[in-house]
Here is the input.
Amino acid sequence: MTKETMQWYLDARFGMFIHWGLYAIPARGEWVKQQERIVEEDYQPFFETFNPIHYDPRAWAKAARAAGMKYAVMTSKHHDGFCLFDTQYTDYKATNTPAGRDLIKEYVEAFRAEGLKVGFYYSLLDWHHPDYPIQGDSIHPMRNHPDFKDHQGNLPRYADYIRNQVEELLTHYGKIDIIWFDFSYDNMRGEAWKGTELVQMVRKLQPGIIIDNRLGGNIKARQPEVFAGDFASPEQIIPPEGMTNEDGQPIPWEACITLNDHWGYHAYDKNWKSAKTLVRALAECVSKGGNLLLNVGPTAKGEIPPECLDILAQVGGWMHNNGASIYGCGNANLEKPEWGRFTRSGSRLYAHILERGIGPLNLRGLQDKVVYARLLADDSQIRLDRPWNAAEYPNDAFIAFPKSELPDDWDTVVELVLKE
Here is the structure.
């Protein structure tokens, strides 16, 4: 994938992840079937009662746009095998539940209407499909169940099922911007999924689509496999120094992060990350050349929890004032300052100031390089004054704040216009 094709993604920097499915009914997270080793007959009532009467993807899309997000990725099928789209290859789909309709179609239309790029998450795992092997599998919910100890499945035939469903997703909903496969493990990777064939089909059906790196290839290799993907996807962690390939060249990456401690809805998980934490995480990702994909887990009724909406709205307030320091920005190729981080777009350098410190703020090596400085939130002038006692720092510039507290406790952004 060329940089030109990926430019929108590199500029966007901030997206919404949506994990939603049958697991919203038990409301104990998206891995509940595996963690509690729930047999099919006990999981089936969730399918028979799935009826998201308040599902309004237009409201989801408006919340994403108001938060400053530029794209979204939604689960079309998660590990339990349940499909939110109308597929002809299984009856285990939303159209056969009380929901009675293609929920993915509504998502695509709603998010496109808000001007957001649209992506699909598709799980390579399937704990419902009869061809998915159980014997020797380290993850399957029935891995230790005596009735399935000899279940070998038919992995090549299951890989064809993946291909057929992905073909549906990429032909029935218009232009799709991202496909997010999840995930490879043990021997279930690469050509076990018929990865080369799958990716070739994806690229043919959707020229310009962006693919994640979880089919099992090595995106950091000097010559990565066909199925290695276009961006890396560190989960619940922000890489200490960004991500590079074997030659030390930066590669696109995206940290996928939950708002609490689960991807799918969990009724009792109230460990919400604050808007301040998320703003700082976003700035950190961009300062290291990466994106932030922030997850929401809607309820079984189809609503994003109010706590999530409140946090997103707060983040959106900060983005409204400071989005220029995020969109189209990346690594400034400067030493990380002790007071925060830098992002950069061309001649615009953005100082994300997280700690006020004592005295004037030091800008290492920027003396005589800054034309103008302003507070990004309101365009007010920021004075660059060299203090009388800084003679031993001739190469450094200094910001003079009039007060001992920062204008914005979350992340005060100063735009520095540099000499060309």
Notes: The domain at 3-325 is CATH 3.20.20.80 (TIM Barrel). The mean pLDDT is 97.
